[in-house]
Amino acid sequence: MTTNPAPERLSFKEADTRLVQALSASFEGNYDNVLLFDGDLVLEGGFLNAVAGICSLDDVNLVVITGDLTVSGPIALYGSLPGLYVGGTTRAETLEGGDCEIYIQDGTFTHLVYGDYNNGILETCTVETPWVINYDHDLRVDAPGARLVDNYGDDDDVDFGSENIGESFVAEVVDPEGESIDVPEFLERLRAGLPVLRPGARTANDAASADVALADQVLHLDLSERARSARSPAPAPPAPVFDRTSGD
What residue ranges in the chain does DSSP mark as E strands? Predict the structure, then answer.
């Protein structure tokens, strides 16, 4: 059985001193009360409910874990408080941020990382996850290999955006206008092991690469045909025809 460290209630200054100013180096807002777990923390279920089951979150501005954080369910922090800081590795079903500030190091998230709207910050070091979805959030995520989805419609440097979401994803996870992902439906299908992409769906980069390859092929065929025509000798003029019946 895992024994979690007993939480400590500290002021922001006290907690920041304990972590050698790691908190003040990360957080941009002003905070008073910190709930600190000094060591590794293992939780069953969703993060907030699990922490609230250990002690009250009343007046808690930030939850800080100095070691690793392992959560069997989602980490979903959509309110302005509490924020989250993890000093070690974070493992959970999802990492979802809304109005608060979240700072973690490396981590693994089974289904997705999601940043919702533009009030909060979600920052990570290198993490493993299959999907990163951003809805106009200050999302500072390094996730090599993840498929990137712009759910707001203002980022061209992604795999899926407003121009190809409707044609790429199954109808159950696309909003009625066909330009963004319905994240709760999307997550439910991932949890159920159901496909979210249509057969043959291509990322924006794949589609662009295919278009370039097709254009190169057409150009090559055109140039080859021109070269063949240039090498072919001009046809000989037709032989003269003599009328043998004429009397000459």
Answer: 8-11, 33-37, 41-43, 62-65, 69-71, 75-77, 83-86, 90-97, 101-103, 107-116, 121-128, 131-135, 138-142, 147-150
